[in-house]
Amino acid sequence: MQNSFRAARTALKVAAFVTLLASGSALQAQAQSIVQLPAGFKIEKVVGGLTYPTSITWDDRGQMYVAEAGGAFLEEAAPARIVRIENGRAIEVANLGQKGIMAAVTGLAWNRGAFYFTHRDSRDRTGAVSRMTPDGRVTMLFSGIIDSQTDHQPNDIRVGPDGRMYVTSGAGGNSAVMGQDMLPFITKNPETRTTSARDIVLTGQNFQTPDFRTPQQGDTVLTGAFVPFGTPTTPGQVIKGRTKSGGTILVFDPNNAEATLRPYAWGFRNVIGLAWNRQGEMFATQNGYDVFGSRPVKDEYDPTYRVREGAWYGWPDFSAALEPLTDPKFTPPGQLMAPVFVNGVMQEKKLGFLIDHAASGLTPPDKSLIAGLHPVNSSPSKPDIAPASWGDMAGQLFVPEWGDMAWVTNALRDKPAGNRIVRIDPATRRLEAFATNLKPGPASEQGAPGRGIERPFDVKFGPDGAMYIVDFGQHKINMARIADGKLPFEWPPNTGGVWKVTRG
Predict the structure, then answer these.
(1) What is the DSSP letter of 331?
(2) First and final CA of the chain: distance in angstroms?
(3) Residues 297-316 pLDDT 10s
């Protein structure tokens, strides 16, 4: 009896010691986090070791799922997957690559007992949306978004308050002109181009750039807007609108997607994420211009917009703040600009309109549609609206800022932008930091990989009222890739994860 008591007492001591160790480890891990939050909030890692995670959703039972993109810009070795998150582990539900799905899977939503996701069509790299039922059967609902053959794939997919589904589609290229910056994509799809949701009339500006298609060094070519690389345009030329267009928010009935698909709003650059408040008002985030390519733009901001059905948001002729790009403040240094010709006559080195607005029936975009302005190159991504349980922050937009691409997309950038979560009060349009690292920039560049924010891409409030942050993972520059005809970016695998933010 005494031995049993002694054994029990020893077991209790051991258990208490193990509990103390676990508690100490947890406290140590919490102390090591470099994420800064407002007083009264705490953050914890739900799962790590993910590769290119982009989206989070929950099924009808409250089970959490995450989409892994399968690649960043072009197809990569890592498979596109849907994983279920349980007890800090990612359990594969579907290897989408084995089901014929091409990267990048950038949007994921659960609706009517099935997963809906955005991706590229493996046959021609155009943008597509597919559905997967719980038994693993995949059905492509539509494809054919030509712009997705470039660096801007279809992004978010969400169910609106009206029960219809909405998709964000990035426009092809930086500012509607296919240039040398699009070399990896043009090589694979020579006819790729920027598209428009409505008929537009061009001003006939053509940009002279080196012709990488010929072996003769020094060869140049003229390329206009909304046409394939090496194709000049003329003043008054009409570009026909397409339903499956880039730079557009598309809407469809999931019961009959192809027949009901149509543009909801257009004239965006790389429109990323969507959210609705309790009043049914829609908001969208956009990644703005780069100081890069044949038509670089020195913009001042990246935007979050209110979305009005049928509205044109000004791209590629207006800034993030919906100001005309003909304002000299948007013109980059002359050495970064390509020579411009109209009807064979060289123009002054300054930004001009690509679209004849009067002939196209377009008026300047409404500045009241600006919900908030982010630092340029911060790359606002997929936002959500805080629920009532968040008290005085309820109804505010929480937006992940994915971050800049260093000097590659903006030779004028001198400090990091993004790599944080911000909140916007729609009533005031004021933007405030909510979750940031100890210093600006990704955690891995602060000697804290895995202990802070890298590239946050999705924010969603879960069924439990907590905020969940999907972090894409680390990013590196590798100039050696250019010689192989690739973009100079690397994305180390297994560096992504999901964070959870709650009130402390």
Answers:
(1) P
(2) 45
(3) 999 999 999 999 999 999 99
